[in-house]
């Protein structure tokens, strides 16, 4: 099952990637960040600039990108940074991109759900997806912009309209895994860099389903504590929004998680075997046509969908409860493209 065949992507592996410049001998890659001047985009771009896996870093946003690019370009790491600003430079920012990371959009404020962002972010993701489909249709597209449960179907439908293959579109749910790893480590007194919790479903509320039964190393919790832990993982984004008191949402932790997913994708593109990350993709694993599960990544995107693995009775109930919510979010995204593009 999952615990026997996956290779956990831990923070140790992440740190190794961003620190050991001299030991990398694999091909490096051209990465584009869409929304590079924002609260997620800037720290994400910093992490990418600091990685030996990135040769060229293209930054795009509607404001301030030349300044962000100039700032990052002074860092003495190999990646060459270029900045692009405004719709007229969007296509140029994507030329030659092999991995595109999309954190563009408005952040959540107190009292807002991810779905409250839909009207603004749907248009942003649709326009960026169209540009990717037309300019770099073979690139791996990593979507962070919320609500991910709807923006990934939006990007997929846009690709179909343009005549591009949407098989390389991924919704980045890695922050849910990062949070689950940390919260479990805190409760059990473990080194968080050694913990790996697969998280399936989607990327909002009850659609976030941590599979504690498949944890590495194995852990157990009494039912009441397991319920509280699950709910904390599901509501962790709101926890940050409230703590920031109107100053934003999860930006630094999301940048870390987004960079981790991008690095895993690059390692897979470079031919490394056994690279596993959970991601929200078009799927036939459940009744929902999009669903996040652990994936083996490869040079062409997903090499293998590892599916749900063996679920506990509690986790099976969570999956059942998430399906209707996911179906609604997916339908909303698909309808947006049908009615607006």
Automatic annotation (TrEMBL):
User: Top-level EC class, please?
Assistant: oxidoreductase
The positions flagged as active site in the entry are: 203 (proton acceptor)
InterPro entries the record matches: L-lactate/malate_DH (IPR001557), Lactate/malate_DH_C (IPR022383), Lactate/malate_DH_N (IPR001236), Lactate_DH/Glyco_Ohase_4_C (IPR015955), Malate_DH_AS (IPR001252), Malate_DH_type1 (IPR010097), NAD(P)-bd_dom_sf (IPR036291)
Show where the Lactate/malate dehydrogenase N-terminal domain sits.
Answer: 30-170
GO BP terms: namely: malate metabolic process; tricarboxylic acid cycle
| UniProt-annotated binding residues for substrate | 108, 114, 146, 179
GO terms for molecular function, please? L-malate dehydrogenase (NAD+) activity
Q: What EC number is given for this enzyme?
A: 1.1.1.37
Give me the Gene Ontology terms describing cellular component.
mitochondrion
Q: Which UniProt keywords apply?
A: NAD, Oxidoreductase, Tricarboxylic acid cycle
Instruction: Cite the record's note on assembly.
Output: Homodimer.
Q: Which family does it belong to?
A: Belongs to the LDH/MDH superfamily. MDH type 1 family.
Matching entries from NCBIfam families are given as: MDH_euk_gproteo
The molecule here is called Malate dehydrogenase
Q: What is the lineage of its organism?
A: Eukaryota, Metazoa, Ecdysozoa, Arthropoda, Crustacea
